Amino acid sequence: MEAIHSHNCNLNIWYYLSDEVWNRVAKLYERMPGWIGYINGIPHWYGQEEDNVYIQASVEPSGLSFFARMNQSDWDSWIARFKSEATKELGFEVGEPEDGFE
Q1: What would the pLDDT profile of 32-75 be if each residue is shown by its tens digit?
Q2: pTM of the full predicted structure?
Q3: Residues 60, 61, 66, 72: what is their CA dihedral angle, to the nearest 10 degrees?
Q4: What value does the mean pLDDT take over residues 5-17?
Q5: What are the CA-CA distances from residue 69 to residues 61, 73, 95 (Å)?
Q6: CB 85 within 8 A of CB 32
Q7: Which of the two ends of the chain, N or C, has the fewest CB atoms closer than 10 A to its terminal CB?
Q8: Is 42 helix (H, G, I), strand (E, B) or coil?
């Protein structure tokens, strides 16, 4: 069994984008594996902070931010799927600003 680690990722889905974009993001959240819903307004997948495995998202000035605790291969697969689905849904290439995505 792979070890559980903490992961984070910021994406170029900016807080100032239109309500239409954010509504599409909210629908995408629900289609992602492990979706459990909003807890205190924060989207969660698989569990909550007190659980061993979870993902949560927040909107920050640096973009849409994810924080996760899970094994590396599950995280890599999940975030790659989110980026791919978001790119299709939003009509622009979604990625990490640190990697040159604007």
Answers
A1: 999 999 999 999 999 999 999 999 999 999 999 999 999 999 99
A2: 0.94
A3: -150
A4: 97
A5: 22, 12, 20
A6: yes
A7: N
A8: strand
Dihedrals φ, ψ of 72, to 5°? -60, -45
Beta strands in 3-74 (DSSP E): 4-11, 35-39, 42-45, 54-60, 63-71
Confidence of residue 100 (pLDDT cuts 50, 70, 90): confident
Tell me how many degrees the CA angle 51-61-45 measures, rounded to the nearest 5. Answer: 25
How many structural domains compose the chain? 1
CATH number of the domain within which 29 lies? 3.30.310
- What residues make up the domain containing 21? 4-99
Structure tokens at 13: 């889905």
